[in-house]
Amino acid sequence: MNRKKFLSLASMGIFTLLFPSILFSKNRSEYQNNNVNVLLKQAASLRKQKKYNQARQIYQQIISQFPNEIRAYDGMRKVILSQKNKEWQVILLFKGALLQNPNNVELKQRLYNEYFRACLGNKKVKNLVNFNGRLLSEVKQKYETFVNNHPNNINVQKQYAKIIRLLDANADTQNPKQNTALKNYRKLEQKKFKKRFSEDTVSQLEVRLNKLITKPYSKDRKPHIRELYKLSFQKLRKQKNNTEALNKAVNYFNTVEKNDPLFLKYIRDMAKLQKNYDVLITIETQNHTIKNNFGPLCLF
Q: Quick one: which of 229, 220, 277 has its CA closest to 255?
């Protein structure tokens, strides 16, 4: 080895000793992120199996190592709320986290979101907050700061708009059964929610449906899948595209739920309308296998 190579290798060794973070910080960061993601998936899986104590231990491990990992706090919140009347413990969780991380905006938002729920729901929790004044007004002021600091965050803006509406309706101070403004607002919101897909075409509904179907199975997701199938069927029926409407109902029956009386009715009506008795007999035979009741097929 000549003198030039020796000096270059020696200088490289000194550089790595003095500045190891420059060379390896990226790899270490990627490793940590991957490790956190694995732990979060494990905890979520345990939580779905209702193994809450094991899930709690993993979330505590993540929080102790990565105190700014907001996903771990969200998971811990779900673990705590798996038991009844634990809303105050959730507030204590975020308050304690903020003492350790006072500049974490996401933790602040989570805490004031819990305060917001306390304003409208559990009076015992609201009293435990022990806030002198109107708590919902304080929540509104905090969300004003969130909105100003994060003008592109749509979720924060929606939440802020909701807080203003409920504050104007005195939702936190007036009995909801006697609050006319709040009742009218909720009725309008229910109507909007029911009609949220009314302007969608059949192809747009199909895109939404495919997105849901490709996601992992969830009981919470099943009603949304049913709703999109129902709307697609109704739009196809309105367009007098009876063949596709029948196919949509049969597809729901075969792939989602065989005990749904509404879609059984859809299939019966459309099959008889099109005189497609082969489909009708097939579906009724399957229905008999499940329910052991040959009534509709005998009537046919």
A: 229
- Look up residue 13 and give its two tokens: 């060794």
Q: Model's pTM, two decimal places? A: 0.63
Query: How would you classify residue 150: left for phi > 0, otherwise alpha for psi between -120 and 50, otherwise beta?
Result: beta
Q: Show the DSSP H helices in 49-151 as ranges.
A: 52-65, 70-80, 87-100, 105-120, 123-129, 135-149
> Residues 133-180: pLDDT tens digits?
888 888 999 899 888 888 888 888 888 998 998 888 888 888 888 889
pLDDT score at 127: 79
Q: Which of 82, 81, 115 is nearest to 98 (CA)?
A: 115
CB 284 within 8 A of CB 253: no
Write out pLDDT tens, residues 208-227. Answer: 999 999 988 888 899 999 99
| 90-100 per-residue burial string, b: 16 or more CB within 10 A, e: under 16 | bbebbeebeee
More confident residue, 195 or 4: 195
Q: What is the pLDDT of residue 120?
A: 81
DSSP letter string over 190-207? HHHHHTTTTT--HHHHHH
> What is the identity of the amino acid at 255?
T
Per-residue model confidence (pLDDT) at position 240:
93
What is the spatial distance between Cα 287 and Cα 290, in angstroms, rounded to a whole number?
Answer: 5
Residue 296: CB atoms within 10 Å = 15
Q: Is 14 exposed, middle or buried (0-12, 13-18, 19+ CB in 10 A)?
A: exposed
Q: How far is CA 203 from CA 66, 208, 236, 244, 267, in A?
A: 44, 9, 11, 12, 21
